[in-house]
Write a structure and sequence with these properties.
By secondary structure, this protein is an alpha/beta fold. The protein has a single domain, classed as Ribonuclease H-like superfamily/Ribonuclease H (Nucleotidyltransferase, domain 5), CATH 3.30.420. About 40% of the residues lie in helices and about 35% in strands. The protein has four helices and five strands. Strands 3-2-1-4-5 form a five-stranded mixed β-sheet, with helices on both faces. It is globular and about 40 Å long.
Length: about 130
């Protein structure tokens, strides 16, 4: 079964209080799962990676076989797709964690989208951060 996963991560202050947002849609475009989570002090890039990791974990319980991620971070989408190298050790650790979780699925793809096309996940992140 294929799902479409919108993820976003953000930190106010960069670094600062961080959160992740995940919205999972089925093939009909219906949201079937949302995840919003405070992740503590984080950079924006760390939060973006942690959002992908939360998305990968969230879909495991849905019997997913294929995931198509939509991410507004060009850096994270490009690193996970193998287009950009990873120089920062903290990013390498998060990259490795995501790649390990990818093994749960037959196929995982990452697409960079403009922020305005990722409004569902962005809304979730801001709702979490606004409660702090």
């Amino acid at each position: 079964m294929k799902f479409f996963v919108h993820t976003d991560g953000g930190a106010r202050g960069n670094p600062g209080p961080g959160a992740v947002g995940v919205a999972v849609k089925n093939k009909e475009g219906k949201i079937i799962k949302e995840v919003g989570k405070f992740i503590g002090r984080s950079t924006n890039n760390e939060a973006e990676y942690k959002a992908v990791i939360e998305g990968l974990k969230a879909c495991d319980s849905l019997e997913a076989t294929e995931l198509e991620f939509y991410i507004d971070s060009l850096l994270v989408a490009s690193q996970l797709s193998g287009k950009f190298k990873i120089k920062e050790p903290r990013m390498r650790t998060l990259f490795n964690e995501a790649k390990e979780l990818e093994r749960l699925y037959k196929k995982v793809t990452y697409t960079h989208v403009p922020r305005e096309k990722n409004y569902l996940a962005d809304r979730i992140v801001n709702e979490v951060l606004d409660t702090l």
